[in-house]
Design a protein that fits this description.
The chain is built from 21 helices and eight strands. The chain has about 450 residues and is an alpha/beta fold. The chain has three domains: about 80 residues, Up-down Bundle (Four Helix Bundle (Hemerythrin (Met), subunit A)), CATH 1.20.120; about 200 residues, Rossmann fold; about 140 residues, Signal recognition particle, SRP54 subunit, M-domain (434 Repressor (Amino-terminal Domain)), CATH 1.10.260.30. Helix 5 packs parallel to helix 6 and helix 14 runs antiparallel to helix 16. The radius of gyration is 25 Å and the shape is flat.
C-alpha cells in the first residue's frame, strides 16, 4: 500500500515521542533526523523535505506547549499539521459550471491510467447526482476507444466516440452537443497520452484547451513512478496549466513521495486518489484524512462515508427485525452482513482507517478469506444455512468439494461462526443491539470528531 514504509517509520517516531513528559532540543533533533530519512526514503523531493523539517523545528522550539497536551503530543500535532499542509491543506473540489455541461479534460502520459480513471470519476460523479458522458478522444492508441466503451458499458454510463475522425477538437465539440441534447451535465474527455512528454502531445492538448475551453484540466499521475511523477506534473502544468491532479495506483507497492511532493512543486491540488482496481475505487482526496492515515491516527470519517454509501438503511433495519425474531444468527444473515462489508472495499484498507490498527503488526488480513467464506456458505443447502447444527462430517466434505476449500477450513470457519453466534446471543437483549445493527448516527459521530 502507498505510504506503508513512510507510515511505519513516522509512527515509530511519534510512538517514542508520545510518552515523553519533556522533550529536549537533542530529542527533537534526533526525531527530525528520523523524519527526514523517512521522507527521503519515500522519494519525497529533497528541497521539500528540507523546508518541511525546518518548519517543524522552528514551530516546535518556538511554540508554548498547550496545557492539555504533553510536549510529545504537541510535537506530533505540529508534524501532522505540516503534513496536512504539504498534502494541500484542504480538500479541493471540481468547479462545476452553473451552465452545464461541465467539461473535464483528463491528460497524462500513456499508462498512467487515464481511461480507467475516466470511468471511475464518472462513476463517482454519478453517485453525487451528476449525469456524465464519457468521450473517447484518444484516436491513436490501438483499442483505446474500445477500452473506454467497455468501461462505460460496465458502469452503464454513455460513451461518445467518432471512429471515423482523427480530429480531437471536432470529436470533443460533437460530444458537447450530444451532452446538451441528452441532458448530460458533465463531459469527461479521455485524451491521448505518450510514453514521454513531447511537443506533438502538448500541442494537441493546447489545441483542445484553446478550442473547447474545458472547465477543469485534471492531470492523471501514476504514483508508482515516484519522483518522475513530480517531474511529469511540473512539465504538464508549465505547458498546459492544469487545475488539479488525480493520483492513481495508490494501492500499489509505492513509497508515496509523489503525493507528498506534487502539490508543493506544482501549486495545484490533488483532487482525487484512485485506491484500487475496481471502478468504484476512487475517492476525493482529503489532505487531513490522508495525514491521519500516514501517522496511524485512523480515518473514521472515510469509514462512515463508505458505510453510508454501501449499506442500505432499509436492508439494515430489515435484518435487525429478522434477528430479533430468531433465536440465533444463521449463515444467511452472516452472508448478508459479509456482502455489505465487501461493498465498502477491502477489509485490509478499512482496518488501516481504524485509529491504532495500523500499529498492530501481527494483524494480518487476507481479503481472499471473504471469497472463501462466501463460497463455503453458497455451497450449503438452504436448510444447512438456516440450521448449521446439521453440518456433520459428510456434509462438510461435500461443502469443501463444492467450494474448492478443505474440511479443515470449513471447521475453522464454523468455529469462528459459533463464537459470533454466542456474542450475538449475549448482545441480543442488550441496548447495544440496535446500535450494532444500525451504527452510530453519522452526523453525531462527525460532530464528535470535529
Amino acid at each position: 500500500m502507498a505510504f506503508e514504509g513512510l507510515s511505519a517509520k513516522l509512527q515509530e517516531v511519534t510512538r517514542k515521542l508520545r510518552g515523553k513528559a519533556r522533550i529536549s532540543e537533542s530529542d527533537l533533533k534526533e526525531m527530525l533526523r528520523e523524519v527526514k530519512l523517512a521522507l527521503l526514503e519515500a522519494d519525497v523531493n529533497y528541497a521539500i523535505v528540507k523546508e518541511f523539517i525546518n518548519t517543524i523545528q522552528e514551530k516546535a522550539l518556538g511554540q508554548d506547549v498547550l496545557k492539555s497536551l504533553t510536549p510529545g503530543q504537541q510535537v506530533i500535532k505540529i508534524v501532522k499539521d505540516e503534513l496536512v499542509e504539504l498534502l494541500g491543506g484542504t480538500e479541493s473540489k471540481i468547479n462545476f459550471t452553473p451552465n452545464p455541461p461541465t467539461v473535464i479534460m483528463l491528460v497524462g502520459l500513456q499508462g498512467s491510467g487515464k481511461t480507467t480513471t475516466a470511468g471511475k470519476l464518472a462513476n463517482l460523479l454519478r453517485k453525487q447526482g451528476k449525469k456524465p458522458l464519457l468521450v473517447a478522444c484518444d484516436v491513436y492508441r490501438p483499442a483505446a476507444i474500445k477500452q473506454l466503451q467497455v468501461v462505460g458499458g460496465q458502469l452503464n454510463i454513455p460513451v461518445y466516440a467518432n471512429e471515423t475522425s482523427k480530429d480531437v477538437v471536432k470529436i470533443a465539440r460533437q460530444a458537447i452537443d450530444v451532452a446538451i441534447s441528452k441532458l448530460n451535465d458533465v463531459v469527461i474527455l479521455d485524451t491521448a497520452g505518450r510514453l514521454h512528454i513531447d511537443e506533438e502531445l502538448m500541442n494537441e492538448l493546447k489545441n483542445v484547451k484553446a478550442n473547447v475551453k474545458p472547465h477543469e484540466i485534471l492531470l492523471v499521475v501514476d504514483s508508482m513512478t515516484g519522483q518522475d511523477a513530480v517531474n511529469v506534473a511540473k512539465a504538464f502544468n508549465e505547458a498546459l496549466g492544469i487545475d488539479g491532479i488525480v493520483l492513481t495506483k495508490l494501492d500499489g507497492d509505492t513509497r508515496g513521495g509523489a503525493a507528498l511532493s506534487v502539490k508543493k512543486i506544482t501549486g495545484r491540488p490533488i483532487k482525487f486518489a484512485a485506491t484500487g482496481e475496481k471502478l468504484s475505487d476512487i475517492e476525493v482526496f482529503h489532505p487531513e484524512r490522508m495525514a491521519s492515515r500516514i501517522l496511524g491516527m485512523g480515518d473514521v470519517l472515510s469509514i462512515i462515508e463508505k458505510a453510508e454509501e454501501a449499506i442500505n438503511l432499509e436492508d439494515a433495519e430489515k435484518l435487525e427485525k429478522q434477528l430479533k425474531k430468531k433465536k440465533d444468527l444463521d449463515l444467511d444473515d452472516y452472508l448478508t452482513q459479509l456482502r455489505q462489508i465487501k461493498k465498502m472495499g477491502s477489509f485490509s484498507s478499512l482496518l488501516k482507517m481504524i485509529p491504532g490498527m495500523s500499529a498492530l503488526k501481527d494483524v494480518k488480513v487476507d481479503d481472499k478469506e471473504f471469497v472463501r467464506i462466501e463460497a463455503m456458505i453458497s455451497s450449503m443447502t438452504k436448510e444447512e444455512r438456516r440450521n448449521p447444527k446439521l453440518l456433520n462430517g459428510n456434509r462438510r466434505v461435500r461443502i469443501a468439494k463444492g467450494s474448492g476449500t478443505t474440511v479443515q477450513e470449513i471447521n475453522k470457519f464454523m468455529k469462528s461462526f459459533e463464537m459470533t453466534q454466542k456474542m450475538m446471543r449475549q448482545m441480543k437483549d442488550s441496548k447495544n443491539m440496535k446500535k450494532m445493527m444500525k451504527g452510530i448516527n453519522p452526523n453525531d459521530l462527525k460532530g464528535m470528531l470535529k
